[in-house]
Amino acid sequence: MNISIVRSRTLALVAAAIIPAAAMAQEGKFVLKGRIGKLNAPATVYFDRTEDGERMLDSAVLKNGSFSFSGATSEPGLMMIALSKDGKGLQNMGSGMDRKIMYLEAATITLTSETDMASATIKGSKLNDADGEYKKHLQPYEDQMDAINKVWGSATDEQRRDTALTNALNVKFRKALADKRALIKSFIEKNPGSPVTVFALQELSVHNNMDLAELEPLFASLPASQQTSPAGKRFAENMNKKKTIVIGAMAPDFTQNDLNGKPVSLSDFRGKYVFLDFWASWCSPCRAENPHVVAAYKKFKERNFLVLSVSLDQPGRKDLWEEAIKKDGLEDFVHVSDLKFWNNAAVKLYGIRGVPANFLIDPQGKIVAKDLRGAALEEALTKYLPE
Fold first, then answer.
1. 61/3 Cα distance (integer angstroms)
2. 353 in helix, strand or coil?
3. pLDDT for residue 364
4. What is the rounded end-to-end Cα distance, in angstroms, of the chain?
C-alpha cells in the first residue's frame, strides 16, 4: 500500500536535544517500506519528517505486517517512524512510543522486525549504514549511560533523595558527556568524508557550547562536498551567527506568547538582570539543570533578577510544557513559547543548536555571561548581583 505525504506548516515530533540534521543534498524520490511481524489493523505506522520548514506527516495501517510510504525529498535528513499497535495516533503514544529515528534519503529503504519498530533493521540506505557506524563509534558512551540509568532505576525513593547518590551519578554523567565529546571529535577526524560527518559536527557543537576554536578547524577539514551541502552551509551560517551572539553584545529582542497567550518581549524586562533560558519538556539535560536554576532564582529573586524561560516544545504539546513547569517547580519563572519545536523564532534568532542553552543579560540588555550550567549560574549571579 503506497501512501503519499501530506504536508502541513508545522514541525516534526522527533524529540531530541539537538536540531535534526540534514546530510548531503540529493533531490529525488524515496520509497520507505517495511514489515513488522504479521500485525494487522488497527496497528498503524506513522511517518513524521520535517523538510524545508514543512512537516511531512502520514500513516499506514498494517496489513499482514506490511506498510509502505513514498514521495519526494529535497535533501536527506532525520525523520521518525513510529508504531502504534492500537492505532490511536501519535498524540496518544506518550514518551514510551515504539519509534525509530533514522535518515530518509532518495532510495528504496526497507525496515524489518518480528516484534517492534525500535529494533527494526534498516537496509537499502547508505546514509543509515554510515549512521550505524557512527553509533558503533559512540557505544562506549551509551554503555556508560546504561550503567548510570541502571543504578538510578534500581534505587529506592529514599536512595534517590540522598544527595550522595545523585552527586555521584552526576559526576559519572558529566564524565560520560566529556567522553562522548572526545568520541565525536575522533569520528570526525577519522571519517571526514562520511555522509553523517556534518551531523556529528552539529552534535559536537551542542556538547562544546559551539566552541568555534574547536569546530572551525574540523569543519575546514571536511571535503568541499560536505561543506557546500545544505547542512554544511547551515552549519557555517550558525558558526558565523555565533560570532555575533557573544558576551558584550546586545541581546536580540523577540516577542512570544506566555502560557495565557499574552505577548511577552525580552525588552519588557529592561532594567533587570534576566536569565534567558532555552529548554524543553522533552529535553532530559534541560530537566536535569532545572533544579540549579530554581535554586539560583530563589536565592537572587529579590535582587532585580528574573528567569525568562523559552520552551522548544512541539506543536500541539502545550500540555507537556505545562506539566513539566509544574513538576520541576518553575511556576515563578516567566514562560514563553511559540510551540514550533526547533523552528522556534527565538531559537533561530540566537542560533541555538542544542538545549539547554542560556544567556545572562544585564539591565541595559547586554549579554554578560552564557552557557551557565550547575554551580556556574550562582557564581555568575554572585558576581553581578552582590548583596
1. 10
2. coil
3. 97
4. 68
| E strand residue ranges, the chain | 6-8, 28-36, 44-51, 54-61, 66-73, 77-84, 98-104, 108-113, 121-123, 255-257, 263-265, 273-279, 305-311, 334-336, 357-361, 367-370
For cell 558584550, the residue is 248
Measure the CA–CA gap between 287 and 101, rounded to whole angstroms.
Answer: 22
Whether 293 and 329 have beta carbons less than 8 Å apart is answered as no
* CA atoms of 86 and 80, how far apart (whole Å): 18
Per-residue pLDDT, 6: 32
Instruction: Say if residue 348 is exposed, middle or buried (CB neighbours under 10 Å; 0-12, 13-18, 19+).
Output: middle
The residues facing 108 across adjacent strands are: 31
Whole-number pLDDT of residue 27: 57
Q: Decide: 229 and 24 in contact? Cβ < 8 Å.
A: yes
What is the DSSP code string of 291-313? Answer: HHHHHHHHHHTTTTEEEEEEE-P
Tell me how far apart the alpha carbons of residues 370 and 373 are, in angstroms, rounded to a whole number. Answer: 9
Name every residue whose Cβ is closer than 8 Å to that of residue 319 and which is 6 or more positions away in sequence. none
pTM for the predicted model, two decimal places: 0.68
The pLDDT of residue 94 is: 66
H/E element holding 321?
helix 318-327
Tell me if the bond preceding 356 is cis, omega within 30° of 0: yes
CA-based nearest residue to 13, from 66, 68, 55, 65: 55
C-alpha span between 321 and 299 (Å, rounded): 25
Q: Which residue, 322, 323, 349, is CA-closest to 255? A: 349
**Cell numbers placing 201:** 559536527
The residues of the chain scoring below 70 in pLDDT are 1-27, 53, 93-96
CA 175 from chain centre, in angstroms, equals 20
Look at residues 273, 314, 280 and name the one whose alpha carbon lies nearest to residue 48.
Answer: 314
Which contiguous run of DSSP H or E holds residue 171? helix 163-190
